[in-house]
Amino acid sequence: MKLVTSLVPLAAISLSTAFIIPDDHITQQIAFQSQNEAESQTFNERLQGSVENAWSGVEETFTDAVAYTENALDNAFSAAIKAGKKAQSTWECHKSMTKFDMDGWIDSGLSVLDDIEIFHGNTQKPKKPHHPPHRTPNKTVYELIAGSKHTTKLAKLINEYPDLIETLNGTAANYTVFAPIDKAFEKLPKGHKPSKELIKKVLSYHFSPNFYPAGRLLVTHTLPSAFGEDALGGEPQRLRLGFGIFTGLNVNFYSRVVAINIFGTNGVIHGIDSLLLPPPPAHKIIELFPGQFSTLQLGLLKTGLDEAIAHGPHVGGTLFAPSNLAFQKLGPKVNAFLFSKYGEKYLKALLKYHIVANQTLYSDAFYKEKDAKSNVMTEVDIDDVPKGLIHVDLPTLLDDKSLSIDIGRYGGLISIKINGFSTVSLQDGLAKDGVIQVVNTVLIPPKTLGGRQYAGEELSVEDLKNRLDVYVEEL
Prior knowledge:
Residues 1-18 form the signal peptide. The chain is 32% helix and 20% strand. The protein is an alpha+beta fold.
């Protein structure tokens, strides 16, 4: 595939639209908070509630934390806790967040990636970090976890699985471990203990067989975990990386990275403040976020496509999910027609054009159909910044009518365009059975094969019918 440089900034991701949540099977045994408590809090209240763990003075604390010492993991977590307390005090005094020292944090995290370029609107290299000389690590990632006072609960769980101990002590790969600190387990309900099989799946979801130090994390959108998901044909369920002004580096939107770059002889550990739970199926995610997807959910129910997505024969898939705002852009007349009894067959054809079965396209990875080799499209080389354009044609449920996908990338900045016009506004919503890419416009097929693609112009009901007549199924 030909690579062509393309730069488009990422859309800001808010916690209020995050949809990485536990699988149904998991939530029956594990719960973080009651639904009533979550609904009673405003977005600002949730932000303020998380500030007590925010970072301030990051460069100073993490400069000390990433040094290779006998107790490197304890030092890193202690530094994060100290920084969190300082941030809480600052918030209480000023009632506002202090400026997050992003450059300093990035500098402190690039100790082994001095040559990598991070995009800040230009191509200048970041300054080299100012920290003490590193010593060669002499403990495996398992030994670091088992010996730390901050990961005693994680170590206790791992110790129940000899094969996991062997893996994390082994040299078959350079592993990346996202280690929940002990406080993360305080969010779990007391009493009921999940099955050993479930616990092992969750533990496997916390590490990757690939090496992701901090600098590589910052230019990565998703990475493969060690948990093979049956609904993805055994392919690795992925972890989503993000960076927020208030949360800093986070995994799956909700779990904040509180310590970085604790190196062992066989990998690297990053400390996190919440457990990572595998996500639910795509149809359940749509159902659970009516504030974003109530129109789409209604359309799937009216047309019966919700059952097709939930129970149809597919291994993985990509759902291009129009938000409520995307439907509003069609105008009241078109919406009234689509959701009428007469327009239902047109609505079904339209929604089929948003569903891709058996091919899971993330912003930086592609799980093809089972008879084709999986392809991680643009893995990060530690000596270079990935950049360019990748083109993929994805067949939809609409008589195999394909979507033309262009993914432009420069380092951690990724843009996904569909049919040359529509933009993915929220990328990589991880699902048990694929991925959700949220789109800011409803995708409209061309009038004829090879015809001009829809480019956002105002559509009349007759124009929409002309585009869909050839695909309409009589109900």
